[in-house]
Amino acid sequence: xxxxxxxxxxxxxxxxxxxxxxxxxxxxxxxxxxxxxxxxxxxxxxxxxxxxxxxxxxxxxxxxxxxxxxxxxxxxxxxxxxxxxxxxxxxxxxxxxxxxxxxxxxxxxxxxxxxxxxxxxxxxxxxxxxxxxxxxxxxxxxxxxxxxxxxxxxxxxxxxxxxxxxxxxxxxxxxxxxxxxxxxxxxxxxxxxxxxxxxxxxxxxxxxxxxxxxxxxxxxxxxxxxxxxxxxxxxxxxxxxxxxxxxxxxxxxxxxxxxxxxxxxxxxxxxxxxxxxxxxxxxxxxxxxxxxxxxxxxxxxxxxxxxxxxxxxxxxxxxxxxxxxxxxxxxxxxxxxxxxxxxxxxxxxxxxxxxxxxxxxxxxxxx
Amino acid sequence: xxxxxxxxxxxxxxxxxxxxxxxxxxxxxxxxxxxxxxxxxxxxxxxxxxxxxxxxxxxxxxxxxxxxxxxxxxxxxxxxxxxxxxxxxxxxxxxxxxxxxxxxxxxxxxxxxxxxxxxxxxxxxxxxxxxxxxxxxxxxxxxxxxxxxxxxxxxxxxxxxxxxxxxxxxxxxxxxxxxxxxxxxxxxxxxxxxxxxxxxxxxxxxxxxxxxxxxxxxxxxxxxxxxxxxxxxxxxxxxxxxxxxxxxxxxxxxxxxxxxxxxxxxxxxxxxxxxxxxxxxxxxxxxxxxxxxxxxxxxxxxxxxxxxxxxxxxxxxxxxxxxxxxxxxxxxxxxxxxxxxxxxxxxxxxxxxxxxxxxxxxxxxxxxxxxxxxxxxxxxxxxxxxxxxxxxxxxxxxxxxxxxxxxxxxx
Lengths: 367, 411
What we know:
The complex is a heterodimer of chains A (367) and B (411). Chain A has 367 residues and is an alpha+beta fold. Chain A has 12 helices and 9 strands.
């Protein structure tokens, strides 16, 4: 180990290219992961924050919140299904909103709800809204009177809530009639009758199996599709595709990290073959040389990770507000472990060469 | 300690008995030193497996780049094809929509206001809506595109059949024909309380929208289908206005005039509207990141490979320098090898793309575009030559005197 660290210190320049390439890849991995997390969190907050276990959609909506309609009779049927403890209606209207003092129209998701949402208080009085904190970037402040939709319906911001957006649009949580008014006037083609919601969320009785209750609901109504909360989150348009695309890019980047480390350490080992031969000739074992290589790989990777993480965090701080970049602690740990594993696997490719070094070559070379 | 003369590994061309005779015909070459091109190719021929593996690996990466470029073109046409190929050269959204057709609602009076703007030859309502439909025995999402028959907004890339002449008829995207959208098929829009059948009478190229099968129908058909989709609807309003300018007036000029004269709208020329679609920018950015990564990988792999190769044959290169080869000749030989490997890699990548294009189905066509292959190939070659600078640096540092000193002895 001492040999590894001493060589790193004495021959810093040799390791700089590897470190720089790895640091760049760490920046890329953290930014890609941050973008994936930002897109996911910013699109799904409204559904992730539901306390209910199940979401009921109309059959013909094909799991789209916007296209679904649950009328009063269907809701009554759902409430009569054994295992259903309570229901809460939920509807969304995606509309532009004018913010006082701002020239740019904010993208907002006006969400009508009846309660049971984590982090969101009970519905405010008509004409008022709990605004998602992300709307502060659009200039929204507490007490502001926002003008919602093309008919500019006034909605006063009562306070702020966190992580509740829908499809990257800032959430405005309102009571059901305010939502229906906004939907009717802004999207007359998507209007709903009084009492109708787009989806109904179901809390199951303690001890009841959500999957069994879901099947019972669909059997009882004959016109609905019931999903678990997690399924409903993944059914939001684009979420699955985003996740799979970014996961593939991140996978390729990890592979590249391993490849870069493998090639750099192969080169370093090749350059040091004679020296390693001498070390073996004076008594160093293959295990000691392998430990040296592993130590160097770990040290180079850790330093590269720290440099990369600092750059990525700095970039995320200066990124424009409309870039959905969120670097979470879990993502940072995932990237750190992933890069280290990729580097160790890449570095291991040189082990064979080290083990095969013949100490006699230290004597015979060049003769 | 400095290892001035590493143990030679792998191919060692100076041991080649042919080399002393290789000077014939090489004007200006010192005796015993072959021409750089011949030196490069002779080494390649002696270490065929090694160079083939590199060309193969780089070729796969080149294929990845070429395939992604083609995929991006196809995917973008899936996202925006219907908007790109409809006949209206100017697209007018409500200003709240922020350039998203599915977020736009236009009051009926706005259509007349747009039509009245100077330089507008014709204008009409255009509706876009995602609906649940039954086609080919399956339920799926379709994008219904409603336009005024005879007005702007009609599909312009009809490949077979005809345009709709009456309500209840539609033109679908040709690549969806096998999914229940062939001429004569009935596509049924499904709502909570009813259905609306549309008979396909024509097929058009690039008619998908938001990656869903697109069906162009008359505007009244769009209204009726939207009512089936949501029986509670108060009114079915156009998503946007599409317009065509007078002869000699550019779409951008007309869009600018509409923005100044009509309140509450955002007018764009068709090309700008296509690139501003929400999905288009996201897909383009994702693919650019992947492609950038692939370019970096090709550069790193080629660069490091040739550095390793140079280190491995350092003794041979030192000897060549000692018998009179100039550094320029050795560098030229290296560059010839880089060029040869990359040309072979591009050939491999292009071959795989050709195979992929021949194997692709009509529902997801992959086209072979020689111009794209050549432009991407040129960029890859330039990057590979730049990557070889590290190896060139090593060649330039070779000191011929090292050939006279045994290994392990510092000079």
